[in-house]
TrEMBL record:
GO terms for cellular component: Golgi membrane. This is Alpha-2,8-sialyltransferase 8E. The gene is LOC113040985. It is found in: Golgi apparatus membrane. The chain crosses the membrane at residues 15-36.
Length: 364
């Protein structure tokens, strides 16, 4: 049936036009005859509300971003840049939910690294990536730390996890990072105060960064390298691959007598295995989680507030300027091991949920 405009409808239209006209006249009148300051206030309140509305929309967009879909840099920088300028909304419920989930699956609180408390003499430790085991002898057991520096309730306060992304270069984020209660860094990344800060409580070492050769004969280069981080714990994944164990144990043996105030600790393969299962169960398709992603999970369990810096696995920033790969060099990673853009989608989701704060812009 063709659509016919009835008399009643057209009358309504006329009435609507008339009221609209009257309103327009009223608005013009008010603008001309009322003091301007009041209108300015109304205007800015209006734009504030529009901004807030836009922020809510953006939060929803990135909250619902599908983890399987990789980020398309050609059209995500605009909306993401706008989203990062929105006030951050933190969600305590979501944080507690994530903390409990991670505690029940993986338990960094009590199992992050091997201690005298969670490891027995002669215990067989399974490797993370193979079926082999390693028997912890009495001599090694004696060198393990007594317990964790945090209480059984965790809660390290405000934590900063510093990734190594090129986005940190010229970021001036050093002061913000150093103001955290607990600072985690990755793979002995260089520190200085302007862009990345200096405070360090925990720093990971990749076994490939160590060389057993000459370590005992001349420990000075190693000592120099690690003393930059003050008394921060040095965490090594000694039991992920079988050929990483000897050099890791050697490092502990060499450093403990020289720098007893700086603990050398070994990532628990139990923790890493369960964390791997947890994320693969949620659909993350990676061969192995990146160290940065592992430490974000540690922080989500142990900290009240988690701030991420330098987590940005793309080669342009939000202003589409070219970035180098790391903030300290431009060496590309081995391909096919990590899937950092896939991990990043999850970090973006966690940010939109109010579970953590991603910092992707320079700190002013
Ligand atoms: C923008 O990204 C979305 C996914 O978020 C994708 O579906 C779309 O095709 C992209 N558009 C362009 C022009 O690349
Ligand atoms: C906070 O997170 C909880 C759990 O996901 C959710 O039910 C709630 O709606 C969120 N609150 C806000 C204000 O977004
Ligand atoms: C974590 O591990 C400790 C030590 O094995 C255990 O006592 C505790 O119950 C575990 N917590 C959870 C939530 O599984
Ligand atoms: C560990 O094993 C060694 C021999 O393999 C044995 O002599 C020692 O008593 C064991 N220690 C403990 C605490 O079981
Ligand atoms: C950092 O700042 C220096 C000096 O201002 C400039 O030359 C350089 O291009 C900047 N680098 C990046 C990655 O923005
Ligand atoms: C590191 O530990 C030593 C010995 O316990 C202590 O004297 C020093 O103040 C500590 N340094 C820092 C930066 O905490
Ligand atoms: C900080 O360290 C980075 C990487 O080592 C370097 O590029 C940058 O120039 C340093 N900045 C200062 C102020 O030393």
């Amino acid at each position: 049936m063709p659509y016919v405009c009835t008399t009643a409808q057209s009358l309504q239209m006329d009435l609507f036009k008339w009221i609209f006209g009257l309103l327009t006249v009223l608005v013009i009148f008010t603008c001309l005859y009322l003091p301007c300051s009041r209108n300015h206030k109304m205007g800015s309140a209006m734009t504030d509300r529009l901004k807030l509305l836009n922020c809510m929309k953006l939060r929803q967009k990135f909250f619902n971003i599908s983890p399987a879909e990789s980020i398309d840099m050609t059209n995500v920088t605009g909306p993401l840049s706008a989203f990062m300028s929105c006030p951050h909304v933190s969600n305590r419920t979501q944080k507690e939910l994530n903390r409990l989930r991670l505690r029940f699956c993986c338990n960094a609180t009590d199992l992050l690294y091997l201690t005298k408390k969670n490891t027995a003499v002669n215990q067989s430790i399974p490797y993370e990536t193979s079926k082999r085991v390693y028997k912890v002898g009495a001599a090694l057991h004696k060198m393990l730390p007594e317990d964790f520096p945090w209480s059984s309730r965790g809660h390290l306060g405000r934590c900063a996890v510093v990734g190594n992304g090129g986005i940190l270069k010229n970021s001036s984020c050093g002061r913000k990072i150093d103001s955290a209660d607990f600072v985690i860094r990755l793979n002995l990344a260089p520190i200085n105060d302007s862009d990345v800060g200096v405070k360090t409580d925990l720093v990971t070492i990749n076994p490939s960064q160590l060389s057993a050769k000459n370590m005992a004969v001349n420990p000075d280069p190693l000592v120099q390298r690690v003393s930059v981080y003050g008394n921060a714990s040095l965490m090594i994944s000694a039991f992920s691959y079988t050929d990483c164990t000897a050099v890791s144990v050697k490092t502990l043996q060499v450093l403990q007598p020289i720098r007893p105030q700086q603990p050398v600790v070994f990532f628990s393969p139990y923790y890493l295995k369960t964390l791997d299962c947890f994320w693969k169960g949620l659909g993350l398709k990676v061969k192995r989680l990146s160290t940065g992603f592992m430490l974000v999970n540690v922080a989500l369990e142990l900290c009240d507030d988690v701030h991420l810096f330098g987590f940005w696995p793309f080669d342009i920033n939000l202003k589409k300027q070219t970035l180098q790969h790391h903030y300290y060099d431009n060496k590309l990673p081995k391909p096919f091991v990590h899937a950092m853009p896939d991990e990043f989608v999850y970090l973006l989701q966690l940010h939109s949920q109010g579970a953590l704060t991603l910092h992707l812009q320079p700190c002013l």
